[in-house]
Write the structure tokens for this entry.
Amino acid sequence: MPESKEFQENACRIKAEDVGLVYHSKHRKNDPNAGSFRALQHVNISVGAGEFLSLVGPSGCGKSTFLYILSGLQRLSEGTAWINGTPITGPALDRGIIMQAYALFPWRTVRKNVEFGLEVKRISKKDRRAIAEQFIELVGLSEFADRYPYELSGGMKQRIAIARALAYDPDVLLMDEPFAAVDEQTRGLLHEELLRIWEKTNKTIIFVTHSIDESIFLADRVAVMTPCPGKIKEILQIDLPRPRTPAIKSSSEFGAYRNRVWQLLQNEGERTEEVITLDGRKHLSTVPQEVSI
Amino acid sequence: MREGKGPHLLLRLYRKTIVIIVLLVLWWILPQFIESMYFPPLGVILAEFRRNIENGELLINLYTSLRVSIIGLAVAEVLGISIGALIGWFKRVDRYLNALFQVMRCTSILALLPLFVLLFGAGELSKIIIIAWATIFPTMINTAQGVRNLEPVLVRSARSMGVRGVGLFLKIILPSASPYILAGFRLSASISLLVLVAAEMLGAAHGLGLMINDASRNFQVTRMYVGMLTIMILGVVLNAALVWLERRLTVWQERAVSA
């Protein structure tokens, strides 16, 4: 499936060439960490139209930073990133970003939140309403259209955030650990829903996560990132059939991918360790390093 | 446990107003037994109240006072929200201006009044400026705090959709800080009445403050009470209107305690 997709649409949406980022912290007296910190080094990847790419790695590996570079909210200091063949110089409506924190505007109703990007695009009031309605329905929250964000659960908020990003019709969705804060069951439902929406809208999705299972379950390809400095260690092609259901996670193929990703991260040595949180989820975490940004 | 939303509306209204009603009744009755020129019965005051409405005196005074305070307040709100937003957004602006504003804020407004009268005359202009001066600070300080408390993730989210500059101010910063701004506005509005009356007492052609002061000097005690009663009612109505407005404009906020 993924191969055929690539053949069908070999248009390259996103391309990163030797992307690097160095933070320069301000020099302060008696601060041993003052100086520069390398967050990303030689990041190379290209993402095809309609492709689902996961970036997985422990916190501190620069995966979110890389996503923010693609969004245009973060400047890069080396290399170039392109969208549709044009270098990325700032944020624009050809990319939609969905963040881990619920970034809905609390003073706007669900409907008005989804209309936000359309207002920026100067789409007429009537069309805004129709488009918003369509995408609120797509994420299955029509009956909540006139509610305020504080009245919604975490999972619902993220579904609205997805609807808001889709409404202004970007080519690429950039997702920064969007489901990290919702409970396990909800996350499972959101995964299936995201895949359904992805197949329906045919967007290119770049999905950042620290969960290995999540990255494999969703993606066509998984880019494994390692820290110090942040770089892509390997890109794995995930040849699991679609549509995917949770049952696939117990298949031997899935297990093989999981082990492979795990190995890639393990080889990094002691810097990465597995953390099992109270709810039984596995996380990857780096040993705390003294870093000043 | 009681069902529904607590006590019946009438019961709540009764609890809220009973003490005031008792006091009003006492004011009506007691002075009829203990005659004192300083405390005329409420009935007499209300008769004077009506006479003052009919002969137009109250209306011109009320109109003058309201006009001056509304203009002063409007000037203060426009400046206060703009400067407050700048202070909240740019740390540098805050660092340079903070001390100055503290000094200005802590100086009694009435101490400065003679200077404003010297500079701008005894007419309405000096009063408008005085009111603007006195009311700018609550709005400015609250706005700055509201802007400082802005969630960075909301700014980032708006920026990712290409919102910048004035758009960012109008679509994100202002609505996000609006609960703070409205609270500051309510404070500013009540201060505007307070300061206006004081300023009018020091000299004016018309106005409620002048009316009260003039009546007091001429031992027109009943007329003095009419002025006071008007200001009292004005204050209560204004506050109620602003509370209502605040609730209307902040329905999107989660409330820990229900109304």
Notes: The interface with chain B takes residues 71-73, 91-93, 95-97, 99, 101, 103, 105-109, 116-117, 119-120, 148-150, 168 of chain A (CB under 8 Å). The two ends of chain A are 42 Å apart (CA to CA). Confidence is low (pLDDT under 50) at residues 1-9, 287-293 of chain A. DSSP finds eight helices and twelve strands in chain A.
